[in-house]
Design goal:
The chain has one domain. The chain contains no helices and five strands. It is an all-beta fold and 57 residues long. It is 0% helix and 51% strand.
Length: 57
């Protein structure tokens, strides 16, 4: 079974607003049904983010 890598890229909806912690930044799914990714706004202000998952084979 081929492994699939998911790379999460988070960008603030407005440049310079907030700080987003993404952990882990790379996930390899090698037959498992899923995994856990932590998203945490570590900034002082509330912010909106757009998160993209990139699937590679």
């Amino acid at each position: 079974m081929a492994a699939t890598a998911i790379v999460a890229m988070a960008q603030p909806a407005q440049a310079g607003v907030g700080d987003l912690l993404v952990a882990p930044t790379r996930v390899i799914l090698d037959g498992g049904r899923g995994t856990q990714i932590i998203l945490n706004n570590i900034g002082e202000e509330e912010a909106t983010y757009r998160v993209t998952a990139e699937l590679r084979r």
